[in-house]
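Hi, does anyone understand the following?
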Amino acid sequence: MAPVSTSTQSESSRTMGQAAFISAAESKMHTARYQNISLVLAIKPASLDPRAFDVFHKVMQTVKSAQVVGNLNQSFLLVYVCEPICISQNQARAIHFSIRHFFSEVKQADERMYRFLISGKVGVSVLGKDTHSMKRAVVHASQATLAQQAGHKSRIQFYDTDLQLTIKRYVLLEDLVRDAIEKGAIGVQYQPIIRCQDWAVAGYEALCRFNLDAALNATTTELIGLAEDLNLISELDLLTYQNAFSQCAPWLKKSGRFLNLNLSPNTQQSLSEVLECMVLLAKQEQVEPRHIVIDMNEVKSPAARSMSQRYSRSFVSGAYSLRWTTCPRDSDWLTY
């Protein structure tokens, strides 16, 4: 059932028709001065009557991610979403986040409207993916709703079916990574590090491993990137340290070799707190500082790089050895 409108019937004209929507959305898209994800959503609720357009228009005025709203032939509600992204951000995640953020804002503004919008079908066209034309994007989004099979569980359908599969895979991997970290189900693989002077094994690099089905064809690098996207990378690092210390403490004392640990600065958490936790974990397993080398890897943003460099200078004065490297995890740099 459509939401009950408190507006008069004459106010329904406030919701833009197709032509006005396309013109306004094109203007927004061309004036954006930042990297962004641009989407057109065509929403076809289970039932739609003229009163719904008034309520939709009123609620959308409080939803910041809805840049432009309108309707198509009084059959579809149209929304243009334009979300800023980082240059290095995963595109699938950015698209997934933009849609989720829009519906989250709607739910916060008016839960009844949220339930109304998700009662039917939602078609999505991604500018720059399936088309570069706003006019075609509106057509693609509306066509995507028609592509959904009756009884299909997914309410959201992309016009680009390959993109649909990519995002479904991304969401699945995101859930698996989150679940593995929350349960502490992280393995560790040890990569020998060779000393160039005499080609002897000087130490081992501790590399995290996810125990996922090989059919997913997911690399460790991809899964680490997902952990960074989810802001769980520090938890992943600390789980790896904990497992490595408990497994390696005995032979580190006997062999005198070092354990190389990776530290990601691409986190919203304080690096000082992460390193302090690492020190506590080492003390619990009686691993001496001289046996630990820390690599800070792949900084994605200039701000994170500056913060990491400042902190590395203060931390290196302690008993631990800290190295700065731009080598990605699992690279073959000095490893075999």
